[in-house]
Amino acid sequence: MILPPDGTKACCVPGRGAVAGAAPAPMAQRAHPSVASVVVAIPGGQGTIGTDAPVFRADGEGPARRISLRPFRIDAQAVTNARFAAFVAGTGYRSDAERYGWSYVFRAFLPPGAAVESPPQTPWWAKVQGACWSAPEGPGSSTADRADHPVIHVSWNDAAAYAAWSGGRLPTEAEWEHAARGGDRKARFPWGADEPDDANAGHCNIWQGSFPQSNTAADGFAGTAPADSFAPNAYGLFNMCGNVWEWCADAFRVRSLSSMAKARNAVAASAGERVMKGGSYLCHESYCYRYRIAARTGHSPDTSAGHTGFRIAYDG
User: Which SUPFAM superfamilies match (predicted)?
Assistant: First the structure.
């Protein structure tokens, strides 16, 4: 795990770093009626990616850059458990978490004293055998009461396979940021500039309290929230920040000539890392302040965890 210069760590799990065996074969592209969703048309033109006020310089958040985009479309919500279940039912697809036999679960969601292994730098994560998209906390858990929540424990490989099957694709990082800003190039959050915190908890699903010891769940959710929770942004998109991290199409890279950036890029390239955006229900300003539009991170394409999902984009 690469840490920012100020020592602040990310809430994210360590990446797996290498694919176990060949990546799943991509599904044939086709629009499938069982995955119908609200799709929003995003105007093309000039936009902005990044920020001139980066919080984590090592992540490559800045500087702000002007971009030109063609019109495209994007799902109003992250892909839900119900939609992913339709994909699996129609294809027999096995996710990376299922192929590996485990995925990372937030330890607080497990029974006290559960005998599970944790990464040394992030002891709040637990490597749970049998955890996957359909059993988010491991054997005995299910998504029966979470059909409208975003699917989790999905890798970039899984997201790309679903996207191809559904007739779409993963958004680029530039498209994701452009859509999240809702037409306001200077927007810090999808809803504007209002800073969410432990008391001001009405904008998004993030952590409230002292991470990782105590979550007051002032926003109403300790884990994932339904994919259409909270107010949408000006384009009508839900939960572009908070709730779950979202995979993008791009390879992760820091645009800098510094020695730190070169080292980070070497690690990312060797693992084939892909960009993730938006932060999750585990983000808090005191620790993982990455629920900002410009914030970003990267992980290997076979990495999965209980706070990682995706949404689909489509050519205009």
Answer: C-type lectin-like (SSF56436)
148: left (phi over 0), alpha (psi -120 to 50) or beta: alpha
From residue 240, alpha-carbon distances to 145, 187, 247 in Å are: 23, 12, 12
Question: What pTM was computed for the model?
Answer: 0.92
Reported confidence tier of residue 15, pLDDT bands at 50, 70, 90 = confident
Helix (H) / strand (E) element for 265: namely helix 259-271
Spatial CA neighbour of 281 closest among 234, 236, 239: 239
Q: Give me the domains of the chain, ranges plus CATH numbers.
A: 55-79+149-315 (3.90.1580.10)
What's the one-letter identity of residue 182?
G
* Coil/strand/helix, residue 38: coil
For 171, how many CA atoms within 13 A lie in the half-sphere containing its CB?
32
pLDDT at 21: 42
